[in-house]
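Input chain follows. Return C-alpha cells only.
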Amino acid sequence: MKKSIRSIFLLLLFSFIVFLNSCATAITTAKAVIPYELTNTLGTSCNMDFIGYKIDSNILSSSSSAKSSARIWGTEIDTVMSEFDQAKAIANTESLKKLGYILENHGIALDKSSNYFGIYSLQEMELYKGENRYVTFIEVAQNKLNYDDNKGSKNIWGGFAGGFLAGGVPFTILGASWKDDEYLGDLGNIYMKFGIGASAIGLLCAIPALLPTKTKIDFNGLYNIYLYDTTTKQLIRKDSVSVKVKDEFTGSYTYDDSSKLIVQDYISRHIYNEIMKKYSELNIWLKSR
C-alpha cells in the first residue's frame, strides 16, 4: 500500500510538472544582428541637421487589438499594441535612440533630435533655424509587427497529458493490486490494461507539452527619409526604406515586457542598418552636389 501511495504521489508530481512546463515561457536570449559599418563618410563636416522621427497617429493606426490563445478552460486574451505604439516602442530602443549620435559621430548630420519638438511639417521646416543648410528627419510610414506563438497548443497538450496520467496510473496501480485476487482478478486485469493505455497516451501528450514555447515574428516597416533645403525652402529628397524581418524566438513574445523588449530591440537593429545605409548614400549624394 505504501508503494502504491508513493507511485500515486509521483504521478501527481509529474502531472504538475507537465502542466507547469506546458505554460508559456519568457524570451530570454537575444539574437545578434551585425551592425552596418559606415565606411564612406567623406570627411567629418556635417551638412545636415537630424531632427528625429515623425511618428504620427494620422499615418499609423492607434487602435490596439486582442489576440486569443487556447487554454484547457476557456481562452487567454493578449492585448496587441497598436501600430502607433509599436513604432514608439521600437524608436525608443537603444539602436534607434543612438542613431542621431552615430550620424554626428561620422560627420553625416548634427544630432538635433533632442532639441526639436515640432510636428515635422514642410511648412514648419520653412521656419526652422539650425546650424546647417539641410534638415533631415525620418517619417515612420508603416510599422506592423505580427507574431504567433504555440503557447495555446502547449496548454492543450499539457492538460491532456496531466488528465490521462492522473487517470491512468491510479487505474494501473489499482488493477495491479487486484489482479491476483480470487474474486477481483478479472476486473484488476481490465483496470491495468485501461490504466497502462491511458498512461501511454498521457506520456505521448507530454512530449509536445514539454517542448519550449516558440514565437514566430513577421515585421514590415516603411520609413521615409526627408531632406529639406532651408535656403531654397524646398524638399530636395525623399527616400523610402523598407524593412522586413521574419524570424523565430524561443519563448513567448507576450510573456512579459522583457520578452517584448528583446524582440523590439532585434527589429530595431535591422531598421538601424537599413536607415544607416540610406544616410550613407544621401551623404555622398549631398556632398557631390
